[in-house]
Design the sequence.
C-alpha cells in the first residue's frame, strides 16, 4: 500500500532547489520557477517572513506558472497564521494542484516573532499545540485527492521526536551530513528526511566563508543552528563571531558544481530522501542561472 510519505518522496525526487530572495515582482518569480522546473529539479521551496512575502500566496503564484514541479514551504511560520488557516490554505492548494504541494511548518527565531508584536514561547509546546489546532481543522478544509506531506522544521532531538510522532517527516536546514544521519536514526524508516543545504558557487575559501558569514545564520540572537551545532559537539569558541572556518564549512557547501554535489551526496548517503540546494544569489534571475549551472551534475546523484 502506498503511503503519503511514499508518494511524497516519489514526487519530490532526490534533488530540489530553494528560492530565498528579497521581494520581487510576480513575473520574476514565475520565470524563475519555470526555469527550475525545466532544469529538472523535483521541488522548489520558498520561505516567508511575518509580513512581506506570504508563503501560500507565493506558492499559488508559482504553482500556476508551472506544470509538474512540487512547490514546498520552507517554512510556513506558525506565528504568521491561525492553525486552521494553515490547514485550510494548504488543503486548498493541494486540492487545486494534486500532488504538487509539500507543507513545511516551523517556529522561526525569537527576534522575528518579537518584531511582529508577539511573545516568544517554548517552541516545542507551541508546535505541539499548533499541530493539535491543524488536526482539529481537517474536517472543515477541502480533502485533496492527493494528501500533502506535513514536515516540521526540526533541528533538535525533541522537535525531531515530535516530527516522528505528528508529521510525515522533518525538514532540517544548514547542517552537516552527521546531523542528517542522526535525524534519520531518530525518525526511523517510513518518514521523510528533506534537507535544505545552503550552497555558494565560489571556489576561493576566504570569499566563500565571508559570504556565508554575511547571511547571519550563525550570529542571529537565539539562532537554533548554533544550538544544533553545539549538540553535534562543536566547541563554544567555534560558534561565536559567525562561526569558525570549520563550522562555516560544516553548514555551507561551497566551491564548484562538483564540490556542491559531493555535499549533497553526503546527505543522501546519510539517509536523506530529498536534498534541496539553496544557492546564495542577489536576485531571482541570478539564482536561476546558478541552478541551471548545477543541474547537470546534480542530476547524476
Sequence:
Amino acid at each position: 500500500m502506498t503511503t503519503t510519505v511514499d508518494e511524497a518522496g516519489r514526487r519530490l525526487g532526490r534533488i530540489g532547489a530553494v528560492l530565498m530572495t528579497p521581494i520581487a515582482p510576480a513575473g520574476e518569480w514565475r520565470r524563475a520557477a519555470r526555469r527550475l522546473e525545466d532544469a529538472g529539479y523535483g521541488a522548489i521551496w520558498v520561505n516567508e517572513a511575518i509580513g512581506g512575502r506570504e508563503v501560500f500566496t507565493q506558492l499559488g503564484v508559482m504553482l500556476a506558472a508551472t506544470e509538474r514541479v512540487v512547490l514546498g514551504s520552507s517554512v510556513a511560520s506558525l506565528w504568521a497564521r491561525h492553525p486552521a488557516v494553515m490547514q485550510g490554505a494548504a488543503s486548498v492548494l493541494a486540492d487545486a494542484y494534486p500532488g504538487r504541494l509539500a507543507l513545511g511548518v516551523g517556529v522561526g527565531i525569537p527576534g522575528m516573532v518579537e518584531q511582529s508584536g508577539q511573545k516568544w514561547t517554548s517552541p516545542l509546546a507551541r508546535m505541539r499545540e499548533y499541530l493539535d489546532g491543524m488536526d482539529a481543522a481537517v474536517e472543515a478544509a477541502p480533502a485533496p485527492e492527493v494528501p500533502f506531506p506535513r514536515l516540521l522544521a526540526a533541528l533538535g532531538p525533541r522537535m525531531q521526536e515530535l516530527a516522528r510522532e505528528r508529521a510525515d517527516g522533518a525538514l532540517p536546514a544548514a547542517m552537516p551530513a552527521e546531523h542528517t544521519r542522526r535525524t534519520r536514526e531518530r525518525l526511523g524508516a517510513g518518514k521523510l528526511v528533506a534537507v535544505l543545504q545552503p550552497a555558494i558557487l565560489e571556489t576561493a575559501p576566504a570569499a566563500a566563508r565571508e559570504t556565508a558569514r554575511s547571511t547571519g545564520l550563525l550570529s542571529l540572537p537565539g539562532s537554533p543552528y548554533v544550538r544544533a551545532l553545539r549538540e553535534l559537539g562543536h566547541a563554544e569558541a567555534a560558534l561565536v563571531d559567525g562561526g569558525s572556518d570549520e563550522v562555516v564549512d560544516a553548514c555551507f557547501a561551497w566551491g564548484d558544481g562538483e564540490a556542491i554535489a559531493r555535499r549533497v551526496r553526503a546527505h543522501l548517503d546519510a539517509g536523506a530522501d530529498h536534498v534541496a540546494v539553496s544557492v546564495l544569489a542577489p536576485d531571482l534571475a541570478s539564482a536561476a542561472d546558478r541552478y541551471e549551472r548545477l543541474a547537470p551534475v546534480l542530476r547524476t546523484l
Notes: The radius of gyration is 18 Å. The chain has one domain: 4-199+270-298. The beta strands are 15-19, 43-46, 70-73, 76-77, 101-106, 150-152, 169-170, 192-200, 253-254, 274-279. Residues 54 and 66 are 19 Å apart (CA to CA).
